[in-house]
Write a structure and sequence with these properties.
Blueprint (H helix, E strand, L loop, with lengths): L1 E6 L2 E6 L7 E10 L9 E6 L2 E6 L5 E8 L2 E7 L2 E8 L5 E4 L7 E12 L9 E8 L4 E5 L6 E10 L3 E13 L5 E16 L3 E2 L4 E3 L4 E9 L4 E11 L5 E7 L5 E7 L5 E10 L4 E9 L6 E4 L6 E3 L4 E4 L5 E3 L6 E7 L6 E6 L3 E2 L16 E10 L4 H4 L4 H7 L4 E5 L3 E5 L2
Parallel strand pairs: 3-9, 8-29, 10-16, 10-17, 18-24, 26-33
Antiparallel strand pairs: 1-2, 3-6, 4-5, 4-7, 7-8, 10-13, 11-12, 11-14, 14-15, 18-21, 19-20, 19-22, 22-23, 23-32, 25-27, 27-30, 28-29, 28-31, 31-32, 31-33
Length: about 425
């Protein structure tokens, strides 16, 4: 393109090259919160005003070519839609807010814990047992008299067998239910469970274990009060043994931990404000003797507009809220019964209800809805939240991060 500018007797000419936006091929995956693929799910990619419609295959995979960035990705499952706004990555993982109806497996697991301070347990003692494998997690509390434990039905998805480990930990607690002395730890490795099986007599013998101390402090956002601090012992097979829940008001902590080779500590802190908004920050993978552990909590999102019980709401109504610092927002619109539900994933502090009439999820008239904002951090972009692990790892507690839940409001759609 050539431009010419003239002023009196002066003339200047310049050439300008306009490059069309590059196209990308998007090959993504849709999974449920159980990490299993969602098959046959409609997916709509909106790019430059054009909608590309496709469907996931049996592995939850979809592919669309000729996409310009940024683009929006909409997943439809039943009467629920999930819209990721402003994506640029070629390989998004889109998480459906429900359990994928994959092939479910189950088995029962039981046995007896031996050793430690013995059974019947002395007063103020507790013994907990955990099972962990790549596919399954479960836990139980041992009987105080016999040491017997029963995990009932352990469920998992995918293969017909799952192989993992059993861990047992016993401790003495004080009058505030905080551990003061660990009496024993034991493990049973390579326990294979098969679908439909009953695996009894999976006994675990504990031996003595020494102690260490983890210490640190919590930083609360303005206007928030501490609800509780939780500490769990984690193992490489993903299993966790919950050891304490401290509802004390102190933002500093120092807890006795078990000195188990290969074990780590997970800290989880919850705080609330006067409006009912909650924030949870999780720090997994801490050393058993870590010091100066810092756990900052960001302020959660607060709803701004429209006001509670608003009427005449349509697809052009703006919903606004305070941003969740360093995170993405899940703006959730829930309708009654079979009415469509909408979830918008965005870094912006406002959004509208998407018009999905083209996929049969139009906004019904004169219907009372509720809305709220869930947040996940740290994610600077929606691309990051849709990356490997992504926001789901924060919600499952397997990655360090924070999540928030706002209060909810209602509104009525236009007649």
């Amino acid at each position: 393109m050539q431009l010419t500018a003239t002023s009196g007797s002066l003339t200047a000419t310049a050439s300008i090259t306009v490059n069309p936006p590059a196209n990308i091929n998007v090959s993504g995956t849709v999974i449920g919160i159980n990490l299993q693929p969602v098959a046959s799910a409609p997916v709509v990619i909106t790019s430059g005003g054009t909608n590309f419609s496709t469907t996931t295959n049996a592995s939850g995979v979809f592919s669309v070519s000729g996409v310009t960035t940024p683009y929006d990705a909409t997943v439809v499952t039943g009467n629920q839609s999930l819209i990721y706004k402003g994506l640029t990555r070629t390989d998004p993982t889109l998480v459906f807010l429900g359990v994928s109806p994959g092939v479910s497996r189950s088995a029962s697991l039981s046995g007896t814990v031996l050793g430690g301070a013995g059974f019947p347990q002395p007063a103020n003692h507790l013994t907990r047992v955990a099972f962990g494998s790549p596919e399954a997690l479960d836990n139980a509390t041992a009987n105080t008299t016999t040491g017997a434990y029963n995990m009932g039905t352990i469920s998992w998805f995918g293969p017909t067998t799952t192989t993992g480990n059993i861990h047992a930990l016993q401790w003495l607690f004080d009058g505030t239910n905080l551990p003061t002395d660990y009496k024993g730890y034991g493990e049973k490795l390579g326990v294979a469970l098969s679908d439909g099986g009953a695996f009894a007599s999976q006994n675990v013998t504990m031996s003595g274990v020494s102690e260490a101390t983890i210490s640190g402090s919590v930083t609360l956002p303005a206007g928030y009060t501490l609800a509780n601090k939780r500490m769990s012992v984690g193992f490489a097979d993903r299993s966790l043994i919950n050891v304490l829940s401290d509802s004390g008001a102190s933002v500093s902590f120092a807890y006795t931990t078990p000195n188990i080779t290969g074990a780590t500590i997970q800290m989880q802190v919850t705080a609330n404000n006067a409006t009912g908004t909650s924030v949870i920050t999780t720090k997994p993978g801490l050393a058993i003797n870590a010091t100066s552990v810092s756990i900052p909590l960001p302020a959660g999102s607060e709803l701004s507009l429209p006001p509670n019980a608003a009427t005449g709401v349509s697809n052009s109504t703006t919903f606004s809220y305070t941003p969740f610092s360093g995170g993405v927002h899940f703006v959730v619109f829930n309708g009654p019964g079979a009415s469509p539900d909408y979830v918008v994933v965005t870094t912006a502090s406002s959004t509208t209800i998407p018009n999905l009439s083209s996929v049969g999820l139009g906004l019904p008239a004169s219907t009372v809805y509720s809305w709220s904002v869930v947040g996940a951090a740290p994610f600077a972009t929606v691309d990051a939240a849709a990356g490997p692990g992504g926001w789901l790892a924060v919600f499952l507690g397997t990655a360090e991060g924070s999540r928030t839940q706002s209060t909810s409001r209602t509104f009525t759609t236009a007649p």
